[in-house]
Specification:
mainly alpha; 9 helices; 0% strand; transcription; HTH-type_TetR-like_transc_reg; DNA-binding
């Protein structure tokens, strides 16, 4: 995976498409959190964000697919921050710092995004289609993590160790966010849980705190 600065800039058409997808995703997330997946239709989502149903289906196959950009946003930001890390930084420190930064509100990533993610995760036990979207997002994140972690650790990106490391790091992030979503705690608790998960995975490799 190339570092963020090495990627070609998006064209105007691509930026508009991404903005529309994100707008639809946010509308879907709000409606799912308020009314549940069963109480929300694709028509509701399209009407809320001011697009036609035809436009909605141009971007997404189902109403559940519409939330994928929002669910993937945190992972993409985390991986981009990790990719930009100086290779001299210890890998665990890089993982912790980038994970914390990816979960913090910033321009273009309002605090409400994490709150809407919480609502989606709470709705997932009753909606297999939402669960499928969530796990697909994390499958893609794991694949994107592997070359980044391989560069930071000097591992072969296609080797067993790099695959295990990417799977463990991605799972730690996923389980921590799911655990946070099930609680009534502030957004900062999500980052604390991620750090706890990473440190427990590292276990005896770490010096005593």
């Amino acid at each position: 995976m190339p570092a963020p600065d090495d990627r070609p800039p998006l064209s105007l058409t691509e930026r508009r498409k991404a903005a529309t997808q994100q707008e639809i995703a946010l509308a879907a997330a709000r409606l799912f959190a308020e009314n549940g997946a069963e109480g929300t239709t694709a028509e509701d989502v399209a009407r809320t964000c001011g697009v036609s149903l035809r436009t909605f289906y141009r971007y997404f196959r189902t109403k559940e697919d519409a939330v994928a950009p929002l669910l993937a946003e945190g992972s993409r930001h985390w991986i981009a921050l990790l990719a930009a890390t100086d290779p001299a930084v210890p890998p665990l420190t890089a993982l912790l710092d980038s994970a914390r930064a990816s979960l913090a509100p910033a321009p273009g990533r309002p605090a409400e995004s994490l709150a809407w993610t919480r609502g989606l995760l709470r709705a997932m036990p009753d909606d297999p289609a939402l669960r499928d979207v969530w796990h697909r997002v994390h499958h893609d994140a794991e694949a994107a993590l592997r070359p980044v972690l391989a560069r930071l650790t000097g591992l072969d990106a296609e080797g067993l160790d790099a695959r295990l490391l990417a799977a463990a790091a991605n799972t730690a992030m996923r389980v921590a966010v799911e655990t946070w979503a099930a609680r009534d705690t502030p957004p900062s608790d999500a980052a604390d849980l991620v750090e706890t998960a990473f440190r427990r995975l590292a276990g005896p490799l770490l010096p005593p705190a």
